[in-house]
From TrEMBL:
This is DUF3784 domain-containing protein. The chain crosses the membrane at residues 43-65, 72-94. Keywords: Membrane, Transmembrane, Transmembrane helix. It comes from Enterococcus asini ATCC 700915.
Length: 99
């Protein structure tokens, strides 16, 4: 499980650092398809922050409140990662909707 947290934490750092690059991580989400390329830096920064927070909270939760099974915790953590992607796109859609 530690490897899972480290991978997603490093992916969050990578998303945050490459936010200002022309295509960043080449993640083309709902917000980019609806609003264009100007939202890519915002989405990548927010995604990076959310993934780092998710990894930190997940690792703290895993070590202080042991789960019933690692399999359940693994799928729950992957679901939270998917929610990070959806939240970053949703916030970008709401923020840049009128611009």
């Amino acid at each position: 499980m530690i490897a899972l947290f480290l991978v997603f934490f490093l992916f969050g750092i990578l998303a945050f650092v490459t936010a200002d690059k022309p295509d960043g991580l080449r993640y083309k989400g709902l917000a980019q398809k609806a609003l264009g390329k100007e939202v890519i830096p915002f989405v990548h920064r927010l995604l990076g922050i959310l993934l780092m927070l998710s990894a930190a909270v997940g690792s703290i939760w895993y070590f202080f409140f042991p789960p019933f099974s690692n399999k359940t915790f693994f799928w729950g953590y992957l679901l939270s990662t998917l929610l990070c992607f959806l939240i970053s796109d949703g916030v970008a859609l709401l923020r840049f909707k009128g611009k």
